[in-house]
Specification:
Blueprint (H helix, E strand, L loop, with lengths): L4 H25 L4 H6 L8 H34 L18 H30 L7 E8 L2 E10 L5 E5 L7 E5 L3 E8 L4 E5 L4 E5 L11 E5 L4 E7 L12 E6 L1 H11 L12 H10 L29
Parallel strand pairs: 1-5, 4-10
Antiparallel strand pairs: 1-2, 2-3, 5-8, 6-7, 6-9, 9-10
Helix pairs in contact: 3-4, 5-6
Length: 315
């Protein structure tokens, strides 16, 4: 004797309510905000370009969850309504050799999905890699074993040289750039292949020595959308001290960046030499700039002690 339709509908309704309650508990118990949920595990970003990638990721995950829901629904539906009947004398459910509509569905739909995914992937990639002809700031980034030099060709010191910052074993180099402005990074290596990587940019690019081959792209642009300090690393194994080849990106508001460059293009009255990055930021601190934002030393990483006798075993 079969289950009455009313009873079956009641059971399905209860199951739906239980599933909805479980989903609600799962979302609220994690303590995640709505913005965190929509990121689906995508880490927080600091640039406009990274946010475009996050948007693409969100919609790709939603599409994947939709496909998964359809597949799970079909599996459960088949298991629930096409299982062997209790009093059936047939060994197997009714068999079909061909089902043209179903075969077209399982072939055409995946092809359409792949084409749509490819289209939005290409659109997002093109948008992220797009470069403006006249960026607001240009930085020449030079990687070397095992540190970085950042030079600003559009800003000159009193002695006629480009404003420049060079890292050392005792000082993490600061790459100071303006927030909410387009910054172009021109990459070059003096020795081996390095890789310019800022995790919050969600983007990295290899830094090649001359001569370049295979039309390797040596530049990219970003627009950092908030003030802050972001650690940068070399992401290409380049030698003994590769892991210690860090730098820090310091994003300042446009007015603070302009003040920073105003100082960098002047001589420090106390030394008679052009302001260094640390001296300029320290001066801005004295003028009222936030202590963390205008710290004269890196706040996201620290120099590596190169004296092996001064270090202890890590375990």
């Amino acid at each position: 004797m079969g289950v009455p339709e009313r009873t079956r509908g009641t059971r399905l309704g209860k199951a739906g309510k239980v599933a909805a309650l479980a989903a609600l508990v799962a979302l609220t118990a994690t303590g995640c905000s709505g913005e965190e949920i929509l990121r689906f595990g995508w880490p927080e970003s600091a640039t406009v370009e990274a946010e475009k990638m996050r948007t693409f990721w969100t919609w790709a995950v939603i599409a994947a969850l939709g496909v998964g829901a359809i597949v799970w629904g079909l599996i459960f539906w088949s298991a629930a309504f096409h299982r062997k009947k209790k009093h059936s004398t047939e060994a197997l459910p009714r068999q079909f050799q061909y089902n043209v509509p179903l075969e077209l569905f399982v072939v055409v739909l995946p092809v359409v999905m792949v084409c749509v995914l490819f289209f939005f992937t290409a659109v997002t990639e093109q948008s992220v890699l797009a470069e403006e002809e006249d960026p607001d700031v240009v930085v020449d980034v030079t990687g070397f074993q095992w540190n970085w030099e950042f030079s600003y060709p559009d800003y000159q010191t009193p002695d006629g040289q480009p404003v420049s910052t060079v890292g050392s074993s005792s000082e993490i180099p600061l790459l100071v750039v303006p927030a909410n402005r387009v910054t172009q990074y021109n990459l070059e290596s003096t020795d081996v292949i390095h890789s310019f990587w800022v995790p919050e940019f969600h983007f990295k690019r290899d830094v090649f020595p001359h001569p370049r081959k295979n039309n390797q792209d040596e530049s990219f642009q970003t627009t950092i959308d908030k003030e802050g300090a972001f650690v940068g690393r070399c992401a290409e194994l380049c030698g003994v001290y590769h892991a210690m080849m860090n730098f820090e990106v310091r994003a300042l508001s446009p007015d603070k960046f302009d003040r920073y460059m105003e100082l960098r293009t002047q001589n420090n009255p106390q030394t008679g030499e052009p302001y260094t990055a640390a001296e300029a930021l320290a001066t801005m601190q004295d003028e009222g700039c936030d202590a963390q934002l205008c710290s004269p030393v890196a706040t996201t990483t620290s120099p590596f002690v190169t004296d092996r006798t001064a270090r202890t075993a890590s375990g």
